[in-house]
Amino acid sequence: MKYNTTDIAIVILNWNGKLLLEKFLPSIINFSEDANIYVADNASTDNSVAFLQTVYPNIQIIQNPINGGYAKGYNEALKDVSEPLLCLLNSDVEVTDNWLEAILFEFNKDKTLAIVQPKLLDFNNRQYFEYAGAAGGFIDKYGYPYCRGRLFKHIEKDIGQYDDNTDIFWASGACFFIKNKIFKSLGGFDEAYFAHMEEIDLCWRAFNLGYTTRFTGNSVVYHVGGATLKNTNPKKTYLNFRNSLFTLAKNTDKNLVGRILTRMLLDGLAGLRFLFILKPLFFLSVLKAHASFYANLSYILKQRQLLKKRSNYFQIKSIVWSYFFLGKKTF
């Protein structure tokens, strides 16, 4: 099957994001000719739906009954979306001319391809990569994610160093293309996550089944990042630490106990660092993340038993060691 733009469903998840829709929908409409655009609303209370119905009556609206976060929100919204290719797009993303053509080229070139991510640049600092996914993601032995173009807080300037088309381990949920049948065969996102890192879990599950995820530098989008939950919010720290543990425990191939014990040590050091820099609420977030992980351990282990495992998922043993102890700041 040869895909074209009419085979793409662009699905934007919205929760009280009327101002973001006003700002970013125009670029999506202008540069996505023939694609089908949906807004999946997570029970907004800010007049988002009324705005869409008035200003953009041709956009299809999916109204979720509750705010189930990113994971449940998309799972519910995509049940009846039938286009062969799904683009899960954050509401704070500006797209550019020909952004879909490069994505279609990759899917048409490689029939085994499951997931594709474009180049993610910072909307407010446009010469630099954006934190959420940059130029494609990888993961270390202990489940810590990192990106080409972003290691922890160090963001690289885009000077063309990642203008390629290459296989990656995970794609950013900020702009996430996936074949519809594969998304549904994987059971969608794990709703226990609520938000953050559910796309990494999905990509890991896809990897374990032999599917390929790819980055293409020929498609460029600009992402604000943190528009719905800022990095300064301790809840984001809690979700990132907890969901990272969920993902590791579900999908790693072997020696789970040893890897979780190592994570306890490394996360403990991260928590102490938060105390040292006088951020006690973030320290508590790390503690709460581990408490929630152990409270949900029965569910996680049941999931682990059901999922296929595959070795050689990591390229580097410890990104923490490489970054903080060896001083490596770029991919």
Structure characterization notes:
- Belongs to the glycosyltransferase 2 family.
- This is Glycosyltransferase family 2 protein.
- Pfam families: Glycos_transf_2.
- This protein is of the alpha/beta class and 331 residues long.
- It folds into 2 domains: 5-223, Alpha-Beta Complex (Spore Coat Polysaccharide Biosynthesis Protein SpsA, Chain A); 234-325, no CATH class.
- It has 11 helices and 14 strands.
- The chain has helices at residues 18-30, 48-55, 69-77, 99-109, 180-185, 198-208, 234-251, 256-276, 280-295, 297-306, 319-325, and strands at 8-14, 36-42, 60-64, 85-89, 93-95, 113-122, 125-129, 137-139, 145-147, 150-151, 154-155, 165-168, 175-179, 212-223.
- The strands form 3 sheets. Strands 1, 2, 3, 4, 5, 6, 7, 12, 13 and 14 form a 10-stranded mixed beta sheet that branches. It has a two-stranded antiparallel sheet with strand order 8-9. The protein has a two-stranded antiparallel sheet with strand order 10-11.
- A hairpin with a 2-residue loop joins β10 (150-151) and β11.
- α6 runs parallel beside α7, α7 packs parallel to α9 and α7 (234-251) crosses α10 (297-306).
- The longest helix is centred in the C-terminal third of the chain and has 21 residues, at 256-276.
- The two termini are 36 Å apart.
